[in-house]
Design a protein that fits this description.
alpha+beta; about 30% strand; globular
């Protein structure tokens, strides 16, 4: 309900919104959602599904607000990685990058990512595409009454529990994660 959310943001002067891409698309497309309704937003974050570049551009154009991307999986935590605003460090006037468009950001504290070869689970280098693993204390204990599925989804390595996300991606030299589109076989496997 884009209008309902926009009215709530305006009425309560909401400054942070985390939502699925569909909400941001609907806000951008709805003529009755005026940019003034979202003027208090300082931080808008899209997650749970891929944010299409056209939808991001439409939201940012209409509301003059950056729309940041986040990433996670149900078996982990609500947000595992996140883009955040860049910061100007005034002591030396350098910029600390927190946002790389096209990426889903850097892991939150306590979260780790590894990109591995899907068959051998060997760690791949920065920029190399492979299976995304999420590690940390927030990784689920297992699937209820399904030890076989748990064993095929969770691995323990280097003192951490790692969840095999089924997503393909890569980490760049700065630690930003980019998720790549799934192949038709990966889509089929993910639905099981």
């Amino acid at each position: 309900n884009a209008r309902g959310v926009a009215r709530t943001v305006a009425r309560y002067e909401v400054s942070i919104v985390f939502a699925m891409p569909d909400l941001f698309e609907r806000c951008a497309a709805d003529r009755k959602v005026d940019p003034l309704m979202l003027q208090t937003l300082r931080f808008a974050v899209s997650g749970a599904e891929k944010l299409e570049p056209d939808a991001k551009a439409a939201f940012q154009s209409k509301f003059r607000r950056e729309l940041y991307e986040a990433y996670s999986v149900t078996e982990s935590t609500a947000i595992a990685s996140l883009n955040i605003p860049d910061i100007l460090v005034t002591s030396d006037f350098t910029i600390q990058r927190g946002n790389k468009p096209g990426s889903v950001g850097m892991p939150l504290p306590g979260t780790a990512f590894r990109i591995v070869d899907p068959q051998r689970l060997e760690i791949l280098g920065h920029g190399e595409e492979g299976l995304v693993l999420i590690g940390g204390a927030q990784v689920m204990q297992g699937y209820l009454d399904d030890a076989e599925r748990t064993a095929s989804s969770i691995i323990e390595k280097d003192g951490l529990r790692w969840y095999r996300t089924g997503d393909r991606g890569y980490l760049d030299d700065d630690g930003f994660l980019t998720i790549l589109p799934r192949t038709p076989k990966e889509e089929s496997d993910a639905r099981r």
